[in-house]
Each structure stands twice: as C-alpha cells, then as structure tokens.
Design goal:
CATH class of the domain at 1-30 and 124-289 in chain B: Alpha Beta
CATH superfamily of the domain at 1-30 and 124-289 in chain B: NADH-ubiquinone oxidoreductase 51kDa subunit
Biased composition (Basic and acidic residues) (chain B): 539-556, 676-687
CATH topology of the domain at 36-99 in chain A: 3-methyladenine DNA Glycosylase II, Chain A, domain 3
CATH architecture of the domain at 1-30 and 124-289 in chain B: 3-Layer(aba) Sandwich
Order of helices and strands of chain A: HHHHEHEEE
Oligomer: heterodimer
Strand order of the largest sheet of chain A: 1-4
Low-confidence stretches of chain A: 178-183, 186-196
Strand order of the largest sheet of chain B: 12-11-15-13-14
Biased composition (Low complexity) (chain B): 516-527, 587-616, 642-661, 688-705
Distance between the termini of chain A: 81 Å
Largest sheet of chain A: 2 strands, antiparallel
Strand content of chain A: 5-15%
Largest sheet of chain B: 5 strands, mixed
Organism (chain B): Neiella holothuriorum
InterPro entries (chain B): 4Fe4S_Fe-S-bd, 4Fe4S_Fe_S_CS, Ion_transpt_RnfC/RsxC, Nuo51_FMN-bd, Nuo51_FMN-bd_sf, RnfC_N
Pfam family, one (chain B): RnfC_N
CATH topology of the domain at 1-30 and 124-289 in chain B: Rossmann fold
Number of helices of chain B: 23
C-alpha cells in the first residue's frame, strides 16, 4: 500500500513540477502573433492591391491563417497558391474567379500634362510610390509601383494608365521560341568526342 | 596559395576536367593584315554596352560631335561611357535595335557621320609615368574601356586592386571556333598589347604577368614572345587548344592548378585576368588618347567571300557592315562564336564593345537542333562539363522548373560554354534551357526583393498614417481643452462679481447658462418655411441675402482689380460691365500658360460640379453647361486669362455655395455658364483640355448612374430646388 502512495505522491509531485515548468514557459515564451501569419505574408506578393478583399497583404495573411481560402490573390497567381498550399498542407485550388484579373504585370503611369495635382492618387497608393504635391504635377516611381491600380479609380480626370511592363534586355528571359532564333552547335568535331 | 615566381620558370601546365575539341575553323580568317575600318553613313551607339548601368547622356539631338567625343558621362561606379566613333550629327536619341539575342530595343544614339572623321583635340601621353595611378584609372574609365573578351566588365574596376594581386593573367587563348580577332591583334600589334599590359601591371603593383595563348596560334605566340623579351616579369605560355580554355576560371586552372572557389572571384586567389584586346585598348587610350571606339571583328563563315579580321567602328550597324563586304541576302548572322554566340534577330543591331566575331554561315555549315530527341542519360554531358556540373540532372530540373533543385545543383556556376550541348547525342539545347532557368531564377529573386521593399514601404506608410492620426487627435484635443479653458475663464470673470463663494458662483453660472439658453430659444425661434410638399424646412433666405450682399461687394472689388490689371498689362482695354463675368468672356487668349490656367480651372470646375451633383442631383444640367463652356475657350494673354480664370473660379465657388444652401439653383448657374462661353477653340492644348473635361464628365455620369439608387430621389430634389 505504501508503495502505491509513494508512487502517487511521486507522480503528483512530478506532475506539479512539469505543470509549473510548462506554465512558466507559456508565459515566458509567449508568442504574440501566430508565426504562420508571417510565413504566409512572406509568400504573398506584397502588392497591397486589396484584390483579395482585405486591405493589404498582411490582413489577408491573417485571414488565411484564420481559415480563409488561399486562392484569392491574383497578383501572386498559381505559383503563390501552390506555395501557400505547400506551406499550409492544403489543397491547391485554381484562382478564384471573383478575384481573377488580367495576368499581366503592369505599372501605373500618369499622363503628366493632364494631371491637375489633386493628390488623390498619392493618398490611395499603398506603397507611397507616387510623388507630387497639391497643384503640382504628380508622377509614379516606376521601380516602386506594385501595379495594384488602386490609384486609377480616385483620379478625377482619369489621367492614370496601367501600362504593361515590357521586358528589357536586362529582364529578358531567353524565350527564344517567341522569335526565330536557333541554338547553334558546330558540326561533329574533327578530333572527335569529349576529353576524358 | 600560388607560388607565382615558379610560374615564370616552370614548364608545368595543369588541366581541367571536361572540355571538348570542336573543329576550329580559324584558318579562313587569321591571315594578316587586319583590314582598315570603314566609316558607315550612320552609326548606332547603344548607351549601355557592358555589364552595369549606362552613363548619363550629355549630348542632344542635332548636335555635332567629333570623333572620340564623350557621349555619356559615367555618373556612378558601374557606368562606362560611350564615345562618338566618327564625327557627325546626332540624328536621334531613341530606342533602337540592340545587338542582343532577344531582338529587343534599347536606348541608342544615332549619329549620321559626315565622312570627315574629324578628331576632337587629343592629348596623348608620351610617357605614362607622368600619370598617377588614380589618374590612369580615371583615364581608363573615361576611355570607356570594358572587358573585350566576353562579358564586358568595366576594366577600371577590375584594375582597382581589392586584394593583393600576385598574378596578372593575360587571356589570349581565344578558344572558340572561328574567332581570330585576338590572334591577329597580337600578331599585328604585339608591342601595343605589351604596353597595355605594362600599364595594367603598374596599376596592380607589378604582379607576375603570364600571357596564355593556345598553341594553334604559333604566330601570335612568336610575336608576343618577341615583344616581351625585355621584360623578365612577363612570360608567354602556350597552352593546348581545347574548348573552353579561354574561360577565366579554366585558364587559371590551366596556368596555376588552382580552382577559383565556388562563390569567389579570381582576386580571392590574388589573380586578375584580362583580355589581350583590353590591354591594347588601354595602350591606345593612354599613348594616343584614343577612347574605345573601334575593335577588331572577325568576319567569317562560308558565305563571306573573303573571311578576314577588320577594324570596325563601334556602332557600325551589322547589316550595313555585311552589305559593305558584299553580302546581300542575309538570312542568318551569328554574333560571337558558334558555341556561345547567338543568332542576331535584328540585323540592324550595331557592333558593340564585346562583339568579336560575325559568322555568316553557309547552308549546312552549322547544324541547328531541329531533331531533338529525349535524353538517354548517356552522361557525355557530365564528362564534357568543364565546371563539374551534372548537365543531365540540370536538364530535368530545368524542364520541371524546379528552381530550388537547380540552385542545389549549382546552376549558377554554369559558364554557358555549350560543351554539354555540343556533345549531346540527343541534340538537346541544354545551354538554352540553363539560360532560361537562370533568367527565371534571377527574375524571381528580383521579384522577392521588390515585394520585400513594397512590404517595407507599405508598413512604414501605415506607421506614418497612424502617427499622423495620433498627432491630429492630440492637436484637436489640445484645441478643445484650450477652448474649454477659455470658456471657463470667461464665465468665471462674468460671474465673479456676483458670487461670494465658489460653490455659489458655480450654481449661479449654471443657472445663468440655463436661463440664457431659454431666453435665446424664446427670443429667436428658428425661422422656417413650409414648402409645397408640406415639409417644414429651415428658412435661410435672410442669411442667403446677407451672403449675396457680401458677394456682390467682393465681386465689385474683384472686377475693379481685374480692370486695373487689364489696363496695366496694356491688353485690349475692355469696358467693365457690372457683371464681371462678361469681361472674362471677352478677353482673347492665345498662349500656353493662359491655356493651361484655363484648363486647370475647367477641370476644377468640372470636379466641383461633380461633387455638387452628388449632393444634389438637380444641378446636373447646368454643371454640364458650365464645363462645356469653359473648355472651348482659348486664351490670348497671360494676365487677362488669369483674371478670367480667377473670376470664373470665384463664380463657380459662389454657385457651389448657393447650391449647397438649397437656394434656387438653376437660374444663376445657367447665367454663369453662359458668360464664359462662345469662344472658338484653337490649339492643341484646348483640345486636350476638352478631352479631360469630357472624361471627367463621363466619369461623373457613371457615378451618378450608380448613385441613382431609388426613383424617388430625383423628384424630391426637384421639389427642393423649386422651393
């Protein structure tokens, strides 16, 4: 009987000890935010365009962590959906039609001589990529523009265009099938074969 | 580390794994002399011809430039300037066909040459010892010299020592088939090449110099050995011909037996590799003050009648060059060698600093891999790879676009030499796949960087907005507190004489306040009228009348001022009718500034009208009128127009106020709008303004359409405006 009591006491003491340790750890190492939100946020394209229905990428990341669908991000496209599916162990779905938009990268362009300097687009830009002042012409910092087109709607004179990004010599991706270029190899070597 | 002294005496050469032995085809073009340059009618100079950024263009269209004149200013580290290769007029600065496999355009300066080939004033140095090292580096930089062997890395940066350089390796291997540009250059200008080498060696604090030349160029080896006979720090080494021995890392391995670390650069081993052509360019720049404006280009291939090496002015359109040498029907031109070169999609692309060879192949000279078959995993490619990669694995991963695996298999170490594709029995265009994969990886990295930046900007913007909000709230609070305090003080002053003690005074004050309120309520009952529909609405007529009076006064003042202004400016002295708007209409206008002002006013008005419309649907008609009228008006005279604009502005404002107050709207607006009318539209700007206004209008209408939610909204607003 003694042995049983002893065992109960010992186990109880251990339980108490571990309980305390866990309780302490829970307070000491408390995570303020779900770390998965940051991981999701990393995968999102950060255009802050709001096409998902949330006011930015982080809110959408939070919503995904809370169980929202992963297929609401048109700028990210299928690649992002696939990565999110991998991260969250969910099924990859095709992009939700309600959120689908044209699949071309664009950048905002202000027709400067039509700009009246109302600053409305500046207030709309989520990444501060438009410079200008009241009654001064505005312009877009193309390098910083994410192509979210949030500035187009507020413009009272409709002088903002979303232009597709054209590839330059530096960003070109060797899509040789688009133009008639062939890879070149010489005829069979006279000396023959490769060096071993 | 390498024992460099030993390199001067030893006969030992190392080897690297892999490599191939293609048919060299250099005999056709290697004979001397190098043909003199030809001045084309037009030269096209891309502003960026190297790795890095372009400089800042410092010439304008229509300007005459002299041969050797700086066309772009190198404004930052990796920028290399370009120069006019011959004298002429800058015809255009625009996007032009690039010498690039994509066939895309890039910023190009087009010069129509005048045929005089007139030099800018030159100040050659007879003795380079006069120059300090820094001056020499600047001179090299401003001569626009970038690596002439392959990639085109800015030479000046490579010659600015970052580490202790023990070996300067001169690359004269020229291992790729067909090309013999460096070969002939070394034969014909060995002394100048050596002069350049000495200058480079001086900048690197006199390291040991080894000039490596493949053994299929005996004449070049001979010439260089003779030219360097006097210098015991320089040694010419003959290396076995094998492709790609001319690769920077491969050459280092052959000469020193050392391998450049995976993510390192040769300077980590104390080695700098330079092309012999670059050395020649340095010598020309210092001793002849001749910037890099021409280079040796091998013109070869079965369709070229007389394959040879030519001096070619940089910027010479390849098409024109080949026409000049008797080639008319051009179907295929390859820039560079057959292993690493590319077919030029647009023949109007120019010769640039890195163009060493142009091949116009015959029908069956070069095979094209139309008959690609699946990979059989024979492993020949892995044997041929000079950098120990596994090309067939890379092939599968590239097909699967598995970027992670590609990086794991060190795709970035691939030098794109084409040896794997050359030996592939299935004729798979392996290098092309790798290039695509590399570009895709680069793009996705760039994307990631960009999204990271966007995130930061978004977050800092949110932070800023938050702070602004807090600051505003604080300010409001402070203001409110100040008001409260002032009120309390006033009350205290008022009640102080009556009250004997604090409590009493407070009570008295409260009572007084209540009484005052009551009295106010009784003495001034809110004026109201009852409109037709039987609704009681507040009567603002008194207030409106007062406002009207004030405005009339203001108008009169403004009219006077305007009149003054018009007379001062000496413009057509118009008679000033009581209604100032009339006069604004009559002022003729013509120039840019005025038109712009008018445009701005028109837009502002349109916008304001739009806002009004949203508030009160009944204003739609007059608003449209107003905007139309302002549009058609061209302006003639700065001042007058500005006056007109100001008047129109004021009027619009007044109208807006009236409308908002709920007074009868239609009449005055209609009046107003009539006044600014009847002017013939004249110039471009006016048309553009009209367009902008039309757009604004269209937008507003669209918004209205959306806003017209209930059918009863319109009748109600009509009632109001009628009352």
């Amino acid at each position: 009987m003694d042995a049983v009591f002893l065992a109960l006491i010992a186990l109880g003491a251990l339980a108490l000890l571990f309980g305390l340790a866990l309780g302490y750890a829970a307070i000491k190492f408390k995570v303020d935010e779900d770390p998965i939100v940051d991981q999701i946020d990393q995968l999102l394209p950060q255009t802050q365009c709001g096409q998902c229905g949330y006011p930015g990428c982080k809110p959408y990341a939070k919503a995904i962590a809370d169980g929202d669908e992963i297929n609401k991000c048109p700028p990210g496209g299928d690649a992002t959906i696939k990565r999110l599916a991998d991260l969250l162990g969910r099924e990859a779905k095709p992009l939700n039609d309600a959120h689908a938009g044209p699949d071309i990268k664009t950048v905002a362009y202000i027709r400067e001589d039509e700009c009246i300097g109302c600053t409305k687009c500046i207030q709309a830009c989520p990444v501060d990529a438009i410079v200008g002042a009241a009654r001064q012409m505005h312009t877009v910092i193309a390098d910083e523009c994410t192509g979210c087109d949030l500035c187009v709607e507020p413009c009272p004179v409709d002088c903002i265009d979303m232009l597709p990004v054209t590839p330059t010599v530096q960003t070109w991706q060797w899509q040789l099938n688009e133009i008639p270029v062939k890879q070149i190899t010489t005829e069979a070597a006279v000396n023959g074969g490769s060096a071993k | 580390m390498i024992d460099v002294k030993q390199l001067l005496t030893t006969d030992k050469l190392w080897d690297y794994k892999g490599g191939v032995f293609p048919k060299y085809n250099k005999e056709q073009s290697r004979q001397l002399p190098i043909q003199p340059y030809w001045i084309p009618p037009v030269v096209r100079i891309p502003v960026r011809q190297h790795i890095g950024q372009s400089g800042h263009i410092n010439v304008t269209e229509g300007e005459r430039v002299l041969k050797g004149q700086l066309l772009t200013e190198p404004t930052h580290g990796m920028a290399v300037p370009v120069h006019a290769p011959t004298s002429g007029i800058i015809e255009s600065i625009s996007q032009g066909a690039a010498n690039h496999p994509s066939g895309l355009s890039e910023l190009t300066l087009t010069i129509r040459s005048d045929g005089n080939d007139e030099w800018r004033p030159r100040q050659p140095y007879a003795n380079a010892d006069e120059l300090s090292n820094d001056d020499l580096l600047q001179l090299i930089r401003y001569a626009g010299i970038s690596g002439m062997g392959g990639a085109g890395f800015p030479t000046e940066i490579k010659l600015t020592p970052v580490a202790d350089i023990k070996l300067l390796l001169m690359n004269g291997a020229e291992c790729e088939p067909y090309i013999s540009a460096d070969d002939t250059l070394m034969q014909a200008h060995a002394n100048e090449v050596v002069q350049g080498i000495l200058l480079m060696a001086r900048l690197l604090d006199h390291p040991v110099v080894v000039i490596a030349i493949e053994d299929d160029k005996p004449e070049a080896i001979e010439a260089m050995t003779q030219a360097t006979a006097d210098y015991d720090q320089i040694r010419v080494r003959s290396i076995p011909a094998k492709y790609p021995s001319g690769g920077e890392r491969q050459l280092i391995q052959i000469i020193t037996g050392e391998e450049v670390p995976h993510s390192g650069i040769p300077a980590d081993l104390g080695i700098v590799v330079q092309n012999v052509g670059t050395a020649h360019a340095v010598a020309r720049a210092v001793y002849h003050d001749e910037p890099l404006i021409s280079r040796v280009v091998t013109l070869t291939g079965q369709r070229v009648l007389k394959p040879a090496n030519h001096w070619v002015l940089l910027g010479t359109p390849i098409e024109d060059l080949l026409h000049h040498h008797g080639l008319d029907e051009l179907s295929q031109v390859i820039v560079g060698g057959p292993m690493m070169g590319y077919q030029l999609p647009k023949l109007s692309g120019p010769v640039i600093k890195t163009t060493n060879c142009l091949i116009v192949p015959g029908q069956n000279e070069l095979s094209s891999p139309d008959n690609q078959v699946p990979c059989i995993r024979c492993g020949s490619c892995a044997d041929a790879c000079p950098v120990n990669l596994l090309p067939q694995q890379l092939h599968w991963y590239a097909l699967a676009e598995d970027h992670e695996k590609l990086s794991e298999h060190n795709l970035n170490d691939c030098i794109e030499c084409g040896a794997c594709a050359y030996v592939c029995p299935s004729e798979i265009p392996l290098v092309l796949e790798y290039r695509q994969a590399k570009a895709a990886i680069r793009a996705s990295k760039q994307e990631q960087l960009k999204s990271e930046r966007a995130k930061q900007r978004f977050e800092s913007r949110n932070l800023r907005l938050e702070q602004e909000k807090i600051a505003r709230a604080e300010k409001h609070q402070q203001a409110a507190q100040a008001r409260l305090k002032a009120m309390a003080e006033r009350e205290q002053q008022a009640s102080a004489p009556a009250a004997t003690d604090d409590k009493k005074s407070a009570v008295a004050a409260a009572l007084a306040r209540a009484k005052a309120k009551k009295a106010g309520a009784v003495s001034a009952p809110p004026k109201t009228v009852v409109d037709e529909s039987g609704q009681t609405i507040p009567d603002n007529r008194d207030v409106a009348a007062q406002r009207e009076a004030r405005k009339a006064e203001a108008r009169a003042r403004k009219a006077q001022k305007a009149a003054q202004a018009v007379q001062d400016s000496g413009a057509t002295p118009t008679e000033l009718p009581a209604d100032s708007a009339q006069q604004s209409a009559d002022v003729p206008a013509a120039d840019n500034k005025a038109a712009r002002v008018a445009a701005a006013v028109a837009r502002a008005k349109a916008k304001r009208q739009a806002q009004q419309t949203q508030a009160d649907d009944s204003v739609e008609q007059p608003a449209a009128n107003l905007t139309e009228q302002v549009t058609g008006k061209p302006a003639a005279d700065d001042k007058a127009a500005r006056v007109a604009a100001a008047v129109a502005h004021a009027k619009a404002k007044r109208q807006a106020q009236q409308t908002q107050a709920g007074d009868s709207v239609e009449q005055p607006v209609a009046n107003l709008t009539e006044q600014v009318t009847d002017k013939p539209a004249a110039d471009d700007k006016a048309a553009r303004v009209a367009a902008a206004v039309a757009r604004a209008k269209a937008k507003r209408q669209a918004q209205q359409a959306e806003n017209q939610r209930s059918p009863d909204a319109t009748p109600r607003s009509k009632d109001q405006s009628d009352s």
